[in-house]
Amino acid sequence: MATDFPAEIERLRHTHASIEAVTDPQALRARIAELSEQAAAPDLWDDPDAAQVVTSNLSHAQADLKRVEDLGSRIDDLEAMVEMAGEEEGDDAAELLAEAESDLASISKDLSELEIRTLLSGEYDQRDAVVTIRSGAGGVDAADFAEMLLRMYLRWAERHGYATKVLDTSYAEEAGLKSVTFEVHAPYAYGTLSVEGGTHRLVRISPFDNQGRRQTSFAAVEVIPLIESTDHIEVPETDIRIDVFRSSGPGGQSVNTTDSAVRITHLPTGLVVSMQDEKSQIQNRAAAMRVLQSRLLLLKQQEEDAKKKELAGDVKASWGDQMRSYVLNPYQMVKDLRTSYEVGNPDSVFDGDIDGFIDAGIRWRKQQEQAEED
C-alpha cells in the first residue's frame, strides 16, 4: 500500500510541535547565551570543577537545540522531496519516493527518541547515573548472570558513545560477580537507566551443572543519580565508619599490595559502599563518599515522595520487584513484566540492544504517574 505522505508529514509536524513545547527552543537559546558568557570568562578555569560543569552544560544545551532544529528542517526537506516527486514521472518519481520513504522512517525514529527525552522531567533525570548490579538467588549462575548484565549495560553505553567507569568489582569464587558498581556519564543517564532498576530473572540450561538441568537465577539492578557539588548532602564524620582493606581480583588474587580499598558504612541507615578500582586510598574514599551521598540523595527523595503520597491518602506500591525475564530455554525470549514489551532474540539484548525496553519503560512510568495524578 502506498504511503500517505501528507498524513505522515502532518503526524511528524504534530510530534515535533509537542517536543518544541516541552524543550522551549527560545529558553534554550537564552540559556546557551548565558552559559557562553560564563564559558568566556577569563577566570573560568580557576575552578576546574565549576568550569567543567559550565562547559558540559553548554555542550548539552547546544546539542539539544540542534537536535530539535535539525528535525524541523528534515521534515521541511521531506515535504519538499514529496512535492518534487509529484512533479516528476516514471523512474525519477519512483526514485524520489523511495528516498522519501527512507527519510520518513529515519525522521520517525529520531523523533521517537527525542520524544522519550521529553518524558524525562524528574528532578534528577538529567544527571549521570551510578548503577550497581548484585547477584541474587541462583548460586554461580546468578553470579554469571550479574556479569552478563554488566556487559549488556556497558555495550549499550558503547553503542551510544557514553563514557562509563567501573568503580568497584566484587568477584564470585567460581565465576561471575557478586556485585559491581559503575558510572554512566551522559545527558539524562539517570532518567534513562532508572527504569532498569529492579530484579532481573534468567532461565537457562546451566553451563555449570554437569547434568544439564535448567536453572533460574536472579540479579538486582540499582540505579541512582550521581551527586553534584551543588546538592549539599551533609554526612557528618560521626555518622560513618571507614574501613580499609586490600583490593583483590578474580580468584582472590591480590591486585594491590597496599590497603587502598575503602568501605564506608553509614551508621544511621546501614548503607554500605565499597570502592577498590582507584589507585589510592584517597581516591577510593572520595569515590565511595560520592556514591554514598548519591544513595542518600535518592533515599531522601523517596522518603519525600512517600510522605506526599501518604498525605494524599493514596499509598501505592511502585514498581514490581521482578521486572524482566530473560528466557534461553525451553524457548528464547526477553520480556518486561511491567510493559509487556518483548523480543525473541536474547543474544542481541545481552549485546546491548535494550533501547526498546528502556523506551517502553519510560512511557509506562509516565502513564503510571499520570494515572496517579488523575
UniProtKB/TrEMBL annotation:
SUPFAM superfamilies: Release factor
Domain (Prokaryotic-type class I peptide chain release factors) ranges: 246-262
Pfam families, A to Z: PCRF, RF-1
Modified residues (N5-methylglutamine): 253
Record's keyword annotation contains Coiled coil: yes
Gene Ontology annotations for the cellular component aspect, listed alphabetically: cytoplasm
Gene3D superfamilies: 3.30.160.20, 3.30.70.1660, Release factor (1.20.58.410)
Entry GO MF terms: translation release factor activity, codon specific
Keywords for the protein's UniProt record, in alphabetical order: Coiled coil, Cytoplasm, Methylation, Protein biosynthesis
Broad class of the protein's primary localization: cytoplasm
Coiled-coil parts of chain: 68-117
Superkingdom field: Bacteria
Entries under InterPro entries matching the protein: PCRF, Pep_chain_release_fac_I, Pep_chain_release_fac_I_sf, PrfB
PTM comment, free text: Methylated by PrmC. Methylation increases the termination efficiency of RF2.
Cellular localisation: Cytoplasm
Function: Peptide chain release factor 2 directs the termination of translation in response to the peptide chain termination codons UGA and UAA.
Family in the record: Belongs to the prokaryotic/mitochondrial release factor family.
NCBIfam families: prfB
The name this protein goes by in its record: Peptide chain release factor 2
